[in-house]
Amino acid sequence: MNSPVTICPHNRQILKGLKDRKVAVTVRDTGTAARAAANARALGADLVCIIVETRLPLGRLAWHGDLASIPLIVIAPFFGAFRDLEPHIGLLKDLDVAIHLPSHGAGNVAGLRILSSLGIRCAAVIGTEGQDWDAIADLATYAVLGPAPHAPIEPFTHMALSGEPFPFIDWDFPCFTGSQRFVRFHDGDRPQAATGARRRPAGPCRACAGWTACRGRFTAEAAQGGCSSFFREMADIAVRRARQAEARACPASAAAPAPPSETEAREDEERGSAHPLQETGGLTWIDFRGGPAQALILSGVLRQVSELHTGRRYALVARTGLAQILMKHPAIEMTGHPPKGARVLTIRATGFPGPREGEYQRLAASFGLATPVEERLWVPWEFEDERNLLALIPWKEKNVLICTASGSPRKDIPVGRWESLVEMLGRDGMGVVQAGGRGDPYVRGAYNILGLLTERQFISLPRHFDVVVTSDALMTHAARLCRTPVIVPGDSPGPESTGLSLTAASLAAIRSAVARAVEGHQG
Questions:
Q1: Average pLDDT in the 119-131 region?
Q2: Which residues are paired to 138 by β-bridges?
Q3: Domain extent for 292
């Protein structure tokens, strides 16, 4: 069995007695962390980490290069203002650090999501009273099932990987996923192991699925049922994560439309859009083989079809990625899977994978519209915003949104060239924000909100900016939908393309195009 790790204060006498023992040393600020680590090592202790227990928000702590060789756990009471923390993000991403924040307060919950999205390990310290269990469950869902790359948020990641019965959690140090191996040592005290209560008390805790993890910590909350509902949802999250892992290991054939997932089926039931297949009558089914960018075009074309042919309706073959954009479209009678013998109109978007001129016209012709038609992008829902996130963005008088994804490795522009453009725009006094999703590299100098938006929020985002610079098809169409000027670097044909790649020779031209677009938009 592994020897336990002793958590002790920065006290030389205590450390001398712990020679050759595993220790985690507690300090009050990051400024003394390097000295505490040096003393522990010099006195022969086997240093596991330094625990910084501070009363300051994260942005007001002293972050410096001396911390690079030290495993750190930072326990702060508040996330604080992101503008205070932003100058240190680059260093934090390079440190071996886990940030602990209390789970109460919208600022802390949002802060944990931001840290995780930046690739910084973090943990939610869940208190014993007054918790918003719905917000905690939402955070757990993001931590375990969020599709964009992000760092773990404990204890949710560990609980989901373990599944039921959940392992015991040291809720004060949730990043210690083997809590029974840790003991705390205070001045003048004997070490005390963190084990929790052994027996279930009478009442709500007796049948709770989370008892093995809780061991009585949330007994005061149990009467209201919030903690037990969280543990039930955590069990469901663990099952969904396991099913996702199985699906990735054994992907289904892409040749036939996949049956709806449990989430999609539940959404269909809630919005009442699922009808029995025998009631489809003479409906034509649309089997649309495209992504979200092309779904925006499909939405606009179908709007024109319904305006020209009042009462014409279609059925849509259910496919992941289309439901959120086309939900409640007036031209779509239902979404599901066509019965045998149904009329199916198969539309393959592989002929127009990016922001190419003419794709709207080709799709309009597929539905019998006399081309050329006016190109009017449209969505059947109101624009949506993540207000808490928008409030954190350091807005300037002129603001530029960039999205670096291209959808094709051959057309990807090196991140260094994007950084050169961002530096130029910064010198011109413009604020630059980077949006995107899975696998997009971070562009230094831009305010990073990668992976923090839903699809609808992503599509709605350009309307807050003066100009968009992107090689991403969905963002290009979203900017057109929001009537925001868009500049597409590269050589791909299309009305928005500059015909200029982000090379050293063309950066100045792109910069000038951005300046003209901003002035035109603000004018």
A1: 87
A2: none
A3: 283-366
